[in-house]
Design a protein that fits this description.
Length: 267
């Protein structure tokens, strides 16, 4: 696969029209392409790397688990603050998320988007993924509720085990992992319970793979959306797991307060 991609790029370097087509296809801006051979080579290398990332992301999309099994995508320019009564707050959370997406390009970190259902947490988390995916980061989406469902069903449907294995591997390998609706697997707020042991074990395995004990630092980045408070998450999961997933730095937590549920709301 790598050789084919490399050959495609190398051939395109000698063909300006084909090179421009490839660059546009993979989100590389060549409007200000430099005249020197060195800069052209850098542009070719960047295009090549983005093509490899795009191919990896196709695989990670196959392994992803979306709520309701419906793959979705979102970008920052699709965010509509005017749908909220407090449009300034809606602009603020989008700005925070964009800033954090930029910082993920330079530093591995965990980020939390917290608030009640329907306020746009998943949309902006997907916008963050979209942003970094177009800048050479591999990304993956996992609805924790869908993961729990698969783990429960695998006993009666053994064919799911390979699907689960692929998903778990991707969760450990992707540069940026989105854990969507983290905490819904613990039940309704008025009846929160510890999460199923299989789910506890798998999530702990992921957290171990994505944390370097020697460096005391994350490996890759995790974006978490949740409707739950920190105390509620501690009721569901092992304290060590929550400690690894939830950042201590308040700047890494985007709170979607003062926003309304806009699901189904007409623009």
């Amino acid at each position: 696969m790598t050789k084919n991609v490399a050959m495609e790029v190398l051939q395109a370097v000698g063909n300006p029209e084909e090179f421009e087509r490839l660059a546009k296809e993979h989100g590389v801006d060549l409007k200000k392409a430099a005249a020197t051979q060195e800069d052209r080579n850098k542009a070719a290398q960047h295009t090549y790397e983005q093509m490899l990332t795009d191919k990896k992301n196709k695989a990670y999309r196959r392994y992803s688990l979306y709520s309701g099994n419906k793959p979705i995508n979102f970008s920052f320019n699709q965010w509509k603050p005017e749908m909220q009564d407090d449009s300034e707050k809606a602009k603020q959370v989008a700005k925070q998320c964009h800033k954090l997406a930029q910082s993920i390009l330079d530093e591995n970190q965990n980020v939390v988007l917290s608030g009640k259902p329907g306020v746009g947490k998943t949309s902006l988390a997907l916008a963050m993924l979209n942003y970094v995916a177009h800048r050479n980061k591999t990304v993956m989406v996992v609805s924790t509720m869908e993961l729990l469902r698969l783990l429960r069903d695998r006993y009666e449907q053994p064919e799911l085990r390979q699907r689960i294995a692929d998903t778990m591997r991707g969760m450990k390998e992707a540069d940026v992992l989105l854990l969507d609706d983290f905490g819904t697997e613990g039940g309704m707020k008025e009846n929160i319970k510890p999460v199923h042991k299989d789910m506890q074990d798998e999530m702990y395995s992921v957290s171990n793979a994505r944390f370097d004990e020697e460096e005391n630092a994350p490996v890759g980045s995790i974006i978490i959306t949740t409707n739950n408070t920190l105390d509620e998450l501690h009721m569901m999961y092992n304290d060590k797991l929550i400690s690894r997933l939830i950042p201590k730095d308040k700047e890494k937590i985007v709170v979607f307060d003062k926003l309304d549920d806009v699901r189904g709301k007409k623009q």
